[in-house]
Amino acid sequence: MPTEDLATLIADFTHRRVWAVVGVSANPHKFGYRVFRDLRQAGYRVYGVNPRVQEVDGETIYPSLESLPERPEVVDLVVPPAVTEQIVQECAHLGLERVWMQPGAESEAAIEYCRRHGIQVVHDACAMVEKLHWPEA
User: Fold this and answer.
1) The domain 3-132 is classified under which CATH number: 3.40.50.720, 3.20.20.70, 1.10.12.10, 3.30.750.24?
2) pTM
3) Share of the chain above pLDDT 70, in %
4) What gap in Å lies between CA 137 and CA 133, rounded to an integer?
């Protein structure tokens, strides 16, 4: 993806206020925890998704995207590539339109699946690095 296209896509994603972080962790040393925390601190409404975690920092964590109380505008994936491939299928089934694959979560199969199903996808970019350029919430 050309740099200017990626920048445009990231700008669009970061203007969206409701995010889901799939792969959130209760361990403050894990990237899934830091993404969840940092997005919340930046003023975004963020839902954590992990079937093995019930609460992080007093916030309810949901077992699936389908169980969320509202539809996320962006789904941020902090999971292994094989899980990403399953989650993008769930996104398509639910009609979710934006997926951000954190470094280490992406796979060519998942990226292609998103493109074939009309899901905008950011990959090869870290949300926490790009956060430096995000609008104020």
Assistant:
1) 3.40.50.720
2) 0.91
3) 90
4) 12
